[in-house]
Design brief:
By secondary structure, the protein is an all-beta fold. 0% of the residues lie in helices and 24% in strands. The chain has no helices and 5 strands. A 3-stranded antiparallel beta sheet has the order 1-2-5, with no helix packed on it. A hairpin with a 5-residue loop joins strand 1 and strand 2. It is elongated and about 65 Å long. The termini are far apart.
Amino acid sequence: MPCPSDSAATPAWRVSVDPQGPVLVEGPVEIALDDGTVVRSDRFVVAVCTCRRSRTYPWCDTSHRPRERAVSPNEDGNP
C-alpha cells in the first residue's frame, strides 16, 4: 500500500463512506481478516461491509438495509 507521503509518486485509492451502508473502495481490493486470511475482489468498485450482518462478509450483501414486507392484495383492506 502506498504511504501518505508518497502521494505524488503513486496513485491514491478512492474510498467512499456511506453512514447508512458499506464502504465503497475502488478495486481491486485485498482485505486481511481477523483470522489472518486474505480475501480478494477484482471488481472495479467493492462494497465492504461495516455492519457485520452480511452473509458474505467482508463483502456487503445489503443486509444493513431495512426490510419492508410486501403487502398482498388481500391484506391492504381492499376487496
